[in-house]
Each structure stands twice: as structure tokens, then as C-alpha cells.
Design a protein that fits this description.
Layout lengths: L15 H22 L3 H23 L5 H18 L5 H8 L1 H7 L5 H22 L11
Helix pairs in contact: 1-2, 2-3, 2-6, 3-6, 4-5
Length: about 140
């Protein structure tokens, strides 16, 4: 089996309804985890970032539905790392965006090294879900296609 035969590198035809639902479901899980379990420091510090990155992966898979899993994962990781690195920058205009609820959720506030690990884990979980549920078997038709 060559690298081009890998389930990670084949171009796909994703079902946008499924990936939109996954994106929304992970987003809802993130909100609920923060609301219902936010008093636990592990949940507050790490789980939200893992779920955020998984949501980015599924969102990119929704938008770029013909890209291979690796390409979606690389784009999601690049985007997530750039967002985290943007937290090192402070100016009135971007701080104004961060003060808005949606801007704060997307851009974050403070650069934290552990967030980069959480992003890798979240995107990795997204890759595992995609490969295990949607690319089972040799024909890559998957479970919900």
C-alpha cells in the first residue's frame, strides 16, 4: 500500500449535511462542557480547546468537501496555530474584536503553549472520527455516505 492509497490522502466527497451537523454538535458540546462542567479546572483549561480544534477540522471538512483528510487536517492545524499566535499581538482594533463574545471565542485572549497540544489532539480526534466512521472498508464509502 503506497501513501496515495492511504485513507488519509484520498480525495473525498463529504456529505455537507453530516459535516455541518458534526461541526454544530461539537460546538454545542463545547458550550455545554463549559456551562455544565466549567468548575473543573481540567475541563476549563483543556477540553474547550480540544473541542474548538475538532470543530475547526469538521468546519474545514464541510467547506472543503473534496479535500483529502490530511489536507483538511493540515489546514485546520495551520488555522488553529495562527489563531493562537495572533494572541501574542495586541492592538486596539483586535482587542476590540476580542471583547465581543464571538470574537473572543474565535480569537481567544492569551497565548498558552498547551493550547497548541490541545489543538493537535482535537484535530487528531477529528481525523480518527472521519477515518473510522466515514472511510471504513476499501471502497471509502464509509458508514454515513
Amino acid at each position: 500500500m503506497s501513501i496515495h492509497d492511504s485513507p488519509f490522502s484520498r480525495p473525498l466527497s463529504r456529505n455537507r449535511l453530516v459535516y455541518g451537523s458534526l461541526t454544530g454538535g461539537v460546538m454545542l458540546t463545547g458550550f455545554l462542557s463549559r456551562h455544565m462542567l466549567g468548575q473543573y479546572s481540567f475541563i476549563k483549561l483543556y477540553v474547550g480547546d480540544v473541542l474548538w480544534a475538532m470543530m475547526v477540522f469538521f468546519g474545514f471538512a464541510f467547506i472543503f468537501c473534496k479535500w483529502s483528510t490530511w489536507r483538511v487536517a493540515a489546514a485546520a492545524l495551520t488555522f488553529s496555530v495562527c489563531i493562537e499566535l495572533s494572541q501574542l499581538y495586541s492592538a486596539p482594533w483586535i482587542d476590540g474584536i476580542r471583547r465581543m463574545p464571538l470574537g473572543g471565542m474565535i480569537l481567544g485572549f492569551t497565548f498558552v503553549w498547551s493550547d497548541l497540544l490541545c489543538y493537535g489532539l482535537g484535530i487528531g480526534f477529528g481525523v480518527i472520527v472521519e477515518v473510522c466512521l466515514f472511510q471504513t472498508g476499501h471502497n471509502t464509502r464509509g458508514f454515513w455516505r
